[in-house]
Amino acid sequence: MLSTTERTRLGRAADRAGTETADLYAILDAGLVCHLGVVRPDGAPMVVPTGYGRIGDTLYLHGSTGARSLRLDGEVCVTVTHLDGIVLARSAFHHSLNYRSAMVYGAPRKVTDPDERLAGLRAITEQLAPGQWDAVRAPDRKELAATLVLALPLTEASVKVRTGPPVDDEDDYALPLWAGVLPLRTSYGAPRPDPLLAAPYPVPSHIADRVHPSVPTGD
Amino acid sequence: MLSTTERTRLGRAADRAGTETADLYAILDAGLVCHLGVVRPDGAPMVVPTGYGRIGDTLYLHGSTGARSLRLDGEVCVTVTHLDGIVLARSAFHHSLNYRSAMVYGAPRKVTDPDERLAGLRAITEQLAPGQWDAVRAPDRKELAATLVLALPLTEASVKVRTGPPVDDEDDYALPLWAGVLPLRTSYGAPRPDPLLAAPYPVPSHIADRVHPSVPTGD
């Protein structure tokens, strides 16, 4: 179980809240980017999409040592959201989304240990492109020096999930209206080779295998 | 042109920054949810996925009058991100994403005018489900009273876009490696009727027409 603190106790949607670590990890592991929230020196929030990776109970983030958002010290909020469907109700008020969302809070630690830095960067690359880390050129000394690696413990987090059909007001179920869910799918298209390939190398199987021949619908 | 302020002048990716209003509107109009960043009373950031809608140069957000995130006064950051492809480079360091992202900053105004409240809610519903507002039951007095509508002017915003193949280090182009882009697609599956439909109503065309018979790949 995740620790529940004031800000992870969900106010309005307690029925959608889960606190199981397995749910949190599943949502994080299925994502490509997070939305990282920081507070700027002027006190205003800033939300940027960025890559991440997970090793056990630690979330890794990276950035350029010159980048503004990750240079900021202090608390962050990392949110990963999957949209699963548009919930079409019989009333405008009850329209919604089916989704899975994870929010992680904390003050990231700057990673200085060389092995952990490399492991964190590997996790971030593999999150986006599984199998690539071992297939491509590893970071060199100069690249590593230009890269900031941050570690955020997955101890203060919350999960919100909505599934299923619309929930309409009792009286509205008699309305002569279609209602239901329009499922959302994310899929991969055919890989596009870099025009500057040195030779017509085939697409590696760890990339080609991510492309499904067709997108299943209606299940 | 959008006004450029300190926080919309992008530090690290000036070459990816656009300031054209049309780009901003296109990115916002193509989205389903934004990630809303606020600063909590304890000073920590919070990022929540939420619906939105646009009318002209105003972005509308809504929430429950009892919800925590939108009860907060002050500055917000609204970020909408579309992921278009995974950029697979010849080195781990140059892996990236093709994406379109819009960030809007400002202090939202609480909408009190009844007509503007209704127009804002209509825009938010239509953003998620075009054609539904006129097809379903409109909000009643009680639902309107429970709904907070906020307006954010689209005057302080930034756009970031990455397209195209990986950009590798000069020496790495000679490596015997495939490189390129794995395109990402979001599509709709077959609509799932609510099991509690009062009768076997057909799926309305404004919903059915969103489903493409197949997902194009490789273009």
UniProtKB/TrEMBL annotation, chains A, B:
Q: What is this protein called in UniProt?
A: Nitroimidazol reductase NimA-like FMN-containing flavoprotein (Pyridoxamine 5'-phosphate oxidase superfamily)
Q: What is the lineage of its organism?
A: Bacteria, Bacillati, Actinomycetota, Actinomycetes, Streptosporangiales
Q: Which InterPro entries match?
A: Pyridox_Oxase-rel, Split_barrel_FMN-bd
